[in-house]
Amino acid sequence: MKKALIFGEYKIARFLPVLRDRGYTDFVVYSAIEFDSALEFDDEGVEVKLLSLDWTADDVVRVLEAERPDVAIANPYAHGQEQLPIVYGQAAARWDGRFVAHSAAFAEVACDKVKLHETGVERGWPVPAGAVCTDAGAVADAARELGFPLVIKEAQAQAGDGRFYAASAEELEAVLAAGLAFPAIVQTFKEGVETGIELISAGGELMRWPVVSMGPLDAGLDPSLRARVAPYTLPQGAAARLEAFLTDIQENFAPYGPWQIDFAVVGDDIVILEINPRLGGLSDLGLTGTGTDPHAVFTGAALGEPLPEVRTRAVAIELPSTEIPSLEVPAHPEGADVMRVTARKPTNRCFINTDRMQLVTTIGDLEAGRRWVKELDAVGLLRCSPESAYRQLEQGFEFFSAKAGS
């Protein structure tokens, strides 16, 4: 009997079939939330225990020693678990068994925005101009030097928290008055297209899913309320800069497992906004557009299997929507593969305690996609403007047009 231990409940139903197929029969999932496993997945052989968000490396090592799994996998989710990868990396360095987790060095750069900025400046990464601040006076000094608009980020915060936009001194004062946790980084706000890429590192190899466009950066700093599309074609200079950045991370920071980069395309270059040491908001789009599930690939890599190739099969769009139980979602475009992601299922939640949902869909025909977006908007389900979704679809189809012409 082989035993798997997984730290984190996110998308756990996609891990279990891979493990069972490889002969694992005993599973322990440490979850940050309580849930009924029988309602979430086939819970045969699965024991769910509570994970503490305040765990130290000592706590994680104690769990590993008590459970003695054949494989342990770090699977943090953003809400409440954003800082745990550092702890997992420290524990993995002390554990004599197989614990698949990023190195602590990589996790620190990915989890701490001040550390990312300082490391970026030191290594010549394309990070925005900025200043590390330890008090409100330093923030005001940085604002005078950098000029508005600005983005202010707390060093360590959970997903969706600790990020603020200020277009004037008055708005900056409001951010400070509301309470800002220090240290914090103050950076210039870059106008450009917010873009992301999801990757998995294992055995010295790097696997990547298509680049995703999250639309133009805005003062709301919330790409989950914009239409996202994959694939997206990077300008030549931006693509080259991204390759150099990925190479430096891979060779010098020892990532092991999934990670994401959130960056802005500004002209022919990129600006690194943040690194996430986990799977998250892009994984459903990656699966839909390629047919290759990042969670399943990660599970296989955790068992020592080689990384497969991933191929872009279709334009895929993710539309921020509203879940209204009494309202049917309009019929999907013919032949589309559709995924409906809601906040109602604890291990599949993209948001918490909201009516927000994401509709993730392949689109085979541009005009059919336009019609569907229009129908979603007409019945009150769409949370972004139809025009922004149209433009995202056009960018996705431009990728295939350019590929056909090359």
UniProtKB/TrEMBL annotation:
Residues covered by the ATP-grasp domain: 117-316
Signal peptide annotation: none
Pfam families recorded: ATP-grasp
Keyword terms of this UniProt record: ATP-binding, Ligase, Nucleotide-binding, Purine biosynthesis
Matches recorded under PROSITE patterns: ATP_GRASP, CPSASE_2
Keyword Nucleotide-binding found: yes
Record's protein name: ATP-grasp domain-containing protein
Lineage, opening ranks: Bacteria, Bacillati, Actinomycetota, Actinomycetes, Kitasatosporales
